[in-house]
Amino acid sequence: MPPPMKQCEYSQITTQSSSPMESPKKKKIPRRKWEVFPGRNKFHCNGRIMMARQTGVFYLTLVLIVVTSGLFFAFDCPFLAVTITPVIPAIAGVLFFFVMGTLLRTSFSDPGVLPRATQDEAADLERQIDIANGSSSGGGYRPPPRTKEVIINGQTVKLKYCFTCKIFRPPRASHCSLCDNCVERFDHHCPWVGNCVGKRNYRFFYMFILALSFLTVFIFAFVITHVILRSQKTGFLNALKDCPASVLEAVVCFFSVWSILGLSGFHTYLIGSNQTTNEDIKGSWSNKRSKDNYNPYSHGNIFTNCCAALCGPLPPSLIDRRGPIQSDTPQSVAPPNGITTYGATQSQSNMAAAIPLLQNESSPTSEEPALPGKMTISPTCATLALGQPTPPPSTSNLATETIITDTMPLKEECDGHHFLTPEEAPSPPGMLTPGTPLTHSHTMHVLNAVTQDSMHEDSVRGLVKLSSV
Fold this sequence. Notes:
Helix content: 25-40%
Largest sheet: 3 strands, antiparallel
Mean pLDDT: 74
Radius of gyration: 42 Å
Strand content: 5-15%
Number of helices: 11
Distance between the termini: 76 Å
Number of strands: 12
């Protein structure tokens, strides 16, 4: 006697069919746009963090700031808090957290990337360029113009065409070769923050370098103070031996403070004149180009320019990094008869359902009498939605009943014309049962088709034979 089946084995038995027509549609998680972003950027936290691909120098910046500040808090602040005042560690802590906040805000945000043109927009723009150039090109070939001129505050500004993004860049925008993006109000690409500096993160970049300048000077000054106070008690050499971390901090701050202070002063000048690094390097508004050349973006005074750069409203991002990708792949559609259609979209199924199978013959109605010699098929099987699977023979509820109406006249009633009588006409295979009499009156035969496809194929073939004269 076989051993009884365990209770756990019963739970593994399922009665659900494995047919693809009955399998439930699995819900797929839509992909986000940052996964197929065309630029050379890296995204983290599901697209919330956007950085450049080269981030090695950014991690070096983090290490230098964190290590230097950590050594200062660990070895210098305890002595300074007891000897001088506990306000020193508090100020250093506020500066450190402000520096880290502005650095991460600059590095992880969208600098103002301009979205690229779609295929339709790029084709339409190319067509407009060709049309604008065709009137002046004559019979010869002339490359289409790739610049446009706009007037801003009385100054002519050229808009350049970007061959990568397929757009005319707005004023002050430029294409970053490292990130491969057009950035609005492009300032420069900064490897120290691991991102481009543009319209949306310039204020945070400026506050970062300004706060870092204060922090570097603060640490350097109080490290020297710490060493001097210790040297008064134990001597200078013994003070250096007792606090080697302070010596390391002083060296790092001494060699970095000059570049940080110089960078802060340079960007303070740019903000005061409302310029970008890119415009200043190229000399876009230099008087050397022409006497009438001036900066059309300047507000006329330093205070207004600083307020416009640092206190104005932050523009929204123009790229939808976390938006779902609109997929055009076919999906399963359930038609009205309950049979699942695979490999067809909703619009294709609706269009297919509206196309009749036999459009050359129309069924007679009560208002339109049947014409002699005309074979009709009732609307029961007149239409069939394209793309639907053939019903299996075992499905009894899908059997189709076809009604054939014979309206052919008698041979005796038509003189001079030869018509085939129902006895002379060959019967379509699969349509009439053997031995069934066919009278000249309106006789209806109800037949069950084996399959939907064979029924329509045979009915059409019989129609051709019966309607031939």
